[in-house]
Design goal:
Number of helices: 18
Number of strands: 2
Low-confidence stretches: 1-54, 56-81
Strand content: under 5%
Largest sheet: 2 strands, antiparallel
Distance between the termini: 33 Å
Mean pLDDT: 81
Strand order of the largest sheet: 1-2
Helix content: 55-70%
Length: 428
């Protein structure tokens, strides 16, 4: 019988959530601690030790406000966060970070520059989900949103240490996007992809070697910005993301016949490849803000669960959306030999799927047969339910952040709540 597991961190505390999902999975609960070491404790000096400091140490607001406060959201409704659009709330700051990103990947080698900037072109940047979450978390842990001066493009060299807390947190947003895009470039080479974000994949234009080197170049630029933060805990957190990305890819490439049918293996790989970047970026912002270890771990849990929910929905969309909506072929994961959550859940219901999964859908007619079995099972719905569970756990983690310091923090936390719903309701 194919085994699957509902991955939760603290099963006793989350008993009610688990009971609501009874029937979603067919075996015992287990924690992530068997394979995920969040390295949650920090006894280091300076920022991140929980001492009073940067969180409330922000100067007065000058001129026009750059961040909508909760009182400006046109609502008398108790559930005011339903009116908050996370992306609109930080759009000006995201634009500033995006412009800095384009500047920081300039090089005097034309082919490398053209390849590196390919997915940073204006209008082709994607959702900027990770940097949006980072900046919302930054304001959620502050007494106010960014000052107008912080919305101007930071033109200091990547190697220069940013003096202002907000600039350091913006660097985390920048680093997260550089790492993310670099991982996409490498993934497309490994998967031999033809398209990405509605564009031709970089490897399809410049070839595999240039695509790999462009990804390496982005990681090198991210490393310079990371070192400039001069915070050993943050450097360790974001460096761990790189380790996890490599580990996740190796887990995906070297999967035994038993592991490919294991939900445990799938969730471990998913954390490494997707959720770790969001989790460690959120925690890095909290560490820079001077939060205590427990408060920083609340930010980490938010990012972890949101990242898992995001990837689970991505796996569902691989079966339910069109190529035009996704920017990549429908059923692309199976064509790459991958068994995602909808497939694993469907295989519990239709054991005939198991041999197809084990031979990576390489037999004649395997893809069509698998699609039919999956679409005539509860696999897609169970994957959606699991995504909703993790989205709910992300929202729950926000309750363990330190007390809010003002209206801007309230608005940002409301937007982070909304993000947990947007992630599971998205269509692309």
């Amino acid at each position: 019988m194919l085994r699957s597991k509902l991955w939760v961190e603290r099963p006793l505390l989350y008993k009610d959530s688990i009971e609501r999902l009874a029937g979603l999975v067919s075996c015992s609960r287990k924690t992530y601690s068997a394979y995920i070491d969040p390295r949650s404790r920090s006894d280091g000096e300076g920022e991140g030790t929980g001492r009073p400091g940067p969180r409330g140490n922000v100067g007065p607001t000058h001129g026009m406000r750059s961040f909508a406060s909760l009182s400006e959201l046109n609502t008398n409704n108790r559930d005011e966060n339903q009116f908050v659009d996370p992306f609109t709330l930080v759009r000006l700051e995201i634009d500033s970070v995006s412009n800095r990103l384009r500047n920081c990947i300039l090089t005097d080698i034309p082919v490398l520059e053209k390849a590196a900037e390919y997915f940073f072109q204006t209008g082709k940047e994607g959702k900027r989900l990770r940097s949006t979450i980072v900046l919302l978390m930054a304001t959620g842990l502050s007494c106010q949103g960014p000052l107008p001066s912080m919305l101007e493009v930071d033109v200091t060299p990547a190697s220069a240490h940013p003096v202002e807390l907000r600039r350091r947190q913006q660097r985390i947003a920048e680093i997260s996007e550089l790492i993310h895009v670099a991982s996409l470039l490498h993934d497309d080479v490994i998967d031999n992809s033809d398209s990405r974000r509605g564009l031709k994949a970089l490897n399809a234009i410049f070839g595999n070697k240039v695509a790999i080197l462009a990804g390496d170049f982005l990681l090198a630029r991210a490393s310079v910005s990371l070192a400039a933060l001069q915070n050993s805990e943050v450097i360790a957190l974001m460096s761990q993301v790189l380790e996890h990305l490599v580990s996740g890819e190796i887990l995906q490439m070297n999967t035994s016949d038993d592991q490919i049918l294991s939900m445990e293996h799938y969730m471990k790989k998913t954390f490494y490849k997707t959720a770790s970047l969001i989790a460690n970026s959120c925690k890095s912002v909290a560490v820079l803000a001077g939060c205590s270890p427990d408060e920083s771990m609340a930010a980490w849990r938010y990012g972890k669960h949101l990242g898992l929910a995001f990837q689970l929905v991505d796996d569902v969309l691989d079966f339910t959306s069109s190529q035009e909506e996704l920017g990549k072929p429908v059923g692309n994961d199976m064509r790459s030999g991958l068994a995602t959550a909808p497939v694993l859940f469907a295989a519990e219901q239709h054991p005939h799927l198991i041999p197809l999964v084990r031979r990576r859908f390489k037999g004649e007619g395997d893809i069509d047969q698998a699609l039919e079995l999956i679409l005539n099972s509860d696999g897609i719905q169970k994957a959606k339910d699991l995504a909703q569970f993790h989205a709910s756990e992300a929202a729950r983690a926000l309750q363990d952040l330190p007390p809010s310091l003002g209206e801007d923090a309230d608005a940002s936390r409301a937007a982070l709540q909304v993000m947990t719903r947007k992630v599971v309701s998205r269509k692309k």
